[in-house]
Amino acid sequence: MKHEYDIAVIGGGPAGLAAAEAAYKAGVKKILILERDFRLGGILNQCIHNGFGLHTFREELTGPEYAGRYIEKIKATEVRYMLDTMVTDLKHEKDGTKTITAMNKEEGIITISSKAVVLAMGCRERARGAMNTPGYRGAGIYSAGTAQLYVNIHGQMPGRSVVIVGSGDIGLIMARRMTLEGARVKMVVEIMPHSGGLKRNIVQCLRDYDIPLKLGHTVIDIKGKKRVEGVTVAAVDENLKPVPGTEEFVECDTVLYSVGLIPENEITQKMGVTLNERTNAPEVTKALEIEGTGVFACGNALHVHDIVDHVTEEAVNAGNNAASYVLEGRVKDDAKGFVDSAEKNVYKPGVDEDKMTCTRCPNGCMLTVLKNEDGEITVTGNLCPKGEAYAKQEYTAPERCLTSTVRMGGIKYRSLPVKTSKDIPKEKLRACVEALKDVEVFAPVRIGDVIVKNVAGTGVDIIATGSIE
Amino acid sequence: MEDVIIIGAGVTGAAVARELSKRELKVLVIEKNSDVCEGTSKANSGIAHGGYDALPGTLKARFNIRGSLLLKQLSKDLDFAYKQNGSLVLCPEGGDRSMLEVLYKRGEKNGVKGLEIIDKDRLKELEPNVNDRMTGALYVPTGAIMCPFSFNIALAENASVNGVRFRLSTEVKEIVKEADGNFRVITDKGDFLSKLVVNAAGVYADKFHNMVCPDKIRIDAVKGEYCLFDKAVGDLVSHTLFTLPTQKGKGVLVTPTVHGNLLVGPTAETVEDKEAVNTTMEGLAQVLDKGALSVESLPARKVITSFAGLRAHEAGGDFIVGENKDVKGFIDAAGIESPGLTAAIAIGEYVAEVINGILPSGKKADFIATRKGIPSLALADDEERQQLIKKDPAYANVICRCELVSEAEIVQAINRPLGATTLDGVKRRVRAGMGRCQAGFCSPKVVEILSRELGRDAMEITKAGEGSDILKGINKHEA
């Protein structure tokens, strides 16, 4: 089957959705999104935690909710999308058109000619193999994202007693998720002297649950022929080499790796483009174009972003630039391109100990909180009023938004993501999870539907953050 | 009562089984693991050796040469990946160049065709990325690379189709020679009687041999660690590179794999524990350091996984193949270390001859000599893909994105004779999970497909048999 489009977007995750929407708004009507999964949204579907959208929507959303907003936007346009469709090839023809080969069950092999292409394939995780950790290769060794899929989508526990290698954000998020769902997370080991994750996640995913973060440590051996039985953790020196004599055996049945992401660019290479050795991504112009090709790249396929809001912003640029390429034959001179995170707000040991990190937004302001004799609290270090409110709340009665899952009725091993409609007292988190233990929901469910009223007597409802059709 | 019981479904056991399946014999293979190809056969260099290395007159030389001759045709008959890429034995600066001559002569004597000693210039032409400190090489054009998994699986599948029965997850505990001359093979799943026993138990072959034979053998497990590199650097070399041993010790090989990765290893360390297939910090460092002696630009960042295998080294240094002189009907295929993969089919052939001498039987008229592998989406061109999808739409559902493996292939891997029942079983049959993300993306999906096709709950799906469960219960509930 042959198709013709003005812009073909490879990947229907946050980058692809935002690029397609931006290009449509810029006036291009024949746009196609190619998505290999059975639904749009990409990795956000399994990122059921909150913290998304503070820049884009000025509110705190979960991953599925953030994706949901863009899916709604796309559905309101004439942009077409093909699901369950795998792109296998991309050619830049002599006449300038781009030919994409893809396949799906209905049409078999599909050929798509397009004037411009947006690459939005996202990224993949580095695995244990890439770290070359010595030891056995039994069951129980997973990438954090694999565990995230098991827990959040399938409602299955990949283990009960966990050591997490690497303090990347997915690892930290999974430390909390697995703890809340009934596992014991023994520690997070990070080879660097500082964490790779956001301060907010150190506070809300580790400290809230007393999970130790071992900086300057790494796993040097994995024991367990059939299933993981434990790991040997050792301190590392300034060259990141293990220090003899510091070895400690930690019993566990699971090792999760959260050690970085690599842009996914197999399709880019099919064009004959050589990837940058360091970034594993194509070289692009300021306007995100692989020079002279009309092929644009954005999102995590181009470089790994800390937050999805930046992915969206960059993808909008890519979409706009692809639109000018199609409509005007060239990108604008003042075209916008890369969106980088400002310096990442990572947790610094020793420096940050006596202070408090505001978790209301990704800024992660470092707050200093003083209490005078009258019990009056003053807050400094905050960039906005949210910081002051947060510090006062955190000082007197800390509150958290709970994100979790409930079972989908009638479908084995499928979960619906849910959250508390408002923050609840921290000490109520476990009671709320317990209250969801045997909850089953049946179709149809829409984002925002109330699943449990007044959960665990908190006065707060549990609402759906995903849908079942 | 069986005619023959074969202990072990590794490549040797499977090769013997396939040879015996050509005859009117009742044959049972007993394997302690949950799948075939679970021991030494799954973790080795994947090389079909030319045969220059083995000392003339040894069984190693004999079966290596014969195996090397047969493999190419067999790879077509049984549809497993095999490629004659040629090997090079490199001589480093300070190495004993006369050793190349020794190997050349030994190879000639063994009947290896096309051997040539080449100088540095020619070497650089053949392998531009080889280290400058290499002064020349022995060129072995008949050297080849192959997929050890699909080889082993193809042999076993074909044997099974031709009537050999396999009892997997069954561990032999004891073998008793009974008064009537038959053998009682006692396992954890009951007793089996047989006229003959073939001992193809890999690193455990000494245990079974010594149970029934008055002469004793000793098999040491010699661990070999490897690093496997991303396909992005699979073309760093095109031949299989060996290095002459120097005073500093034996080198490691650097080779493309038949699937386009780069493989470097193995180390050699004798270990007490015959299940110790763990890699070590020292071992992996050695692999990378020694590999860099052959190819300086070896990119350590492109390692996608590492693994270790155990070679079954017999104290005498040669294979032990044949009927025991004291125990009638007990046939060893023991001490099968390198070049065991190459030699396996020749060993199978020979053992079948020996058995025919003891227990003559007719040839099966309806023997099926060929076997078709699972059509691979990754290897098909667009037109072939279209046909595959037309016949089975599940070919369009890509499960493993790194290796481009579809749902259709995984379903076939599970439902074939001796089909996969585990994650590793699927991986070795169709390569789902073999790629650069090392099953991160596909394993949850493969678990689901295994669960559906086998009619088992997802909680019962394992990585490689009992005790290697992947999941530990459901959210919010106790395990």
Characterization of this structure:
The complex is a heterodimer of chains A (469) and B (479). Chain A is an alpha/beta fold. Helix content of chain A is 22%, strand content 28%. Chain A folds into 4 domains: 2-124 and 261-328, FAD/NAD(P)-binding domain (3-Layer(bba) Sandwich); 127-257, FAD/NAD(P)-binding domain; 356-396, no CATH class; 403-464, CPE0013-like fold (Roll). Chain A has 10 helices and 30 strands. In chain A, strands 1, 2, 5, 6, 7, 8, 19 and 20 form an 8-stranded mixed sheet that branches. In chain A, strands 10-17-11-12-13 form a 5-stranded parallel sheet. Chain A is globular, with a radius of gyration of 23 Å. The two termini of chain A are 29 Å apart. Chain B is built from 12 helices and 22 strands. In chain B, β11 (183-187) and β12 (190-199) form a beta hairpin. Chain B starts with a strand and ends in a 25-residue tail after the last helix. The interface between A and B is large, with 63 and 58 residues.
